Amino acid sequence: MTSASTPEELVDVAVIGAGSVGAMALWHLSKVPGLSVLGIEQYGRAHGLGSFAGESRLFRMAYKEGGLYLPLLTDARRQWLELEQEAGTEILLQVGALSIGTETQPEMVATRETIDNFGLPHRYLDTEELRKEYPQHDVHDSDVGILDPQGAGLRPEVAVCSALRLAEANGVRMRYRCAVEAVEPGDNGVTIRTAQGVVRARTAIVTTGSWATELLPGVRDLVHVQRLALSWFMPADIGRYLPERFPVFMRDIDDVHFFGAPSLDGYSVKVSPGHLDLPSAPTLAELPDLPDDFGAHLAAQVTDFFPDMNPEPVRLTAHHEMFTADRVPIVDRDPTGSIVAVAGLSGHGFKLAPTFGRIARELAVDGTSTLCPREFTLAAHRQRAAALA
Ligand SMILES: Cc1cc2nc3c(=O)[nH]c(=O)nc-3n(C[C@H](O)[C@H](O)[C@H](O)COP(=O)(O)OP(=O)(O)OC[C@H]3O[C@@H](n4cnc5c(N)ncnc54)[C@H](O)[C@@H]3O)c2cc1C
């Protein structure tokens, strides 16, 4: 509905959803000379309700998810450094990433395979080296370590806010606190209906994260939203967990997966569960809350890995992320060329956000992207889904 006092706005490219990928797409688009760009975000700038919330994210180059992602990770790392430089603030914490598990744990085997297949920098640590160099962890007798020196921590809220500030300084206009209600492709672009009037754009980039199914009906049968929790604990000696001594980590024992990051607040350490059995749902609106006994269950596991942690989470926060069935992201341009969709980022989405943003810009402006693997397209997703059916 357009109110009489709100004229229609005409732009070349509109980005809907200014979270992780949307902010990066806006930053990239802001560097294209002569392009009129509008960002539309239902909340404010770098709010706490997106999938990016939660102080830190992990960046890994020795990616157990496989070689498909390596060119993207290489691009992303370069861009994180570029964003950091342009913004004049620290975003990529270059602390390394440490994987801990037995030699035969599937995650460890897959990480080694990626390292060996692509000749990536690494250090393999045996049990005694691991105990000596990383005494913060309670290393079990069968545990070994893999250090990915290009691994890092990321500061997601700082990154999103920085990219948006830079985009706005370069001339991108933003509508904050403006929810998009519909995106309708037409003959000459796309009509975007918002609570504050209509916008017409040559192309709309839809990067609405866990809300994707509301504006992109074509992805509905391919995605689901999963509840994820983050938790922080207080160690006896915080000095051992500061960034200069404590890499981001992943720890796998059978089906239990934990990950975490060094202390950024000077009193607590992020130690969080990966795949505890939390309920998923087709849409964000249907997600139930965390179970009441979740904190206690978590504490019991955490103290097994970090004996000096106070077994009471000092912070426990609930988050959401949209997944596809095989955890491969969806990035595609519709046949009319008027909508670029980025959805179902399945845990890859923050470390690769600047690259997804760049691919979205390329698809919107050039119509094609050499960086975007065919596996990410809707057609490829449908083929894989049909093969499994
Ligand atoms: C707990 C947790 C831990 C994670 N750990 C990692 C990690 O270590 N490394 C990693 O790479 N990834 C990680 N991920 C995944 C990563 O954070 C996500 O993949 C990524 O943030 C998703 O980005 P997005 O742009 O798709 O969504 P978001 O960042 O959520 O952005 C979507 C934006 O769209 C806006 N929006 C939605 N609907 C509308 C509308 N109708 N109108 C206007 N605006 C709208 C939202 O308000 C939001 O700002 C983790 C995720 C979670 C939840």
From TrEMBL:
Residues 12-362 form the FAD dependent oxidoreductase domain. It holds the Pfam family DAO. Its cofactor is FAD. The keyword Oxidoreductase applies. Keywords: FAD, Flavoprotein, Oxidoreductase. It comes from the Bacteria. NCBIfam families: PRK11259.1. This is Sarcosine oxidase. It comes from Gordonia paraffinivorans NBRC 108238. The lineage of its organism: Bacteria, Bacillati, Actinomycetota, Actinomycetes, Mycobacteriales.
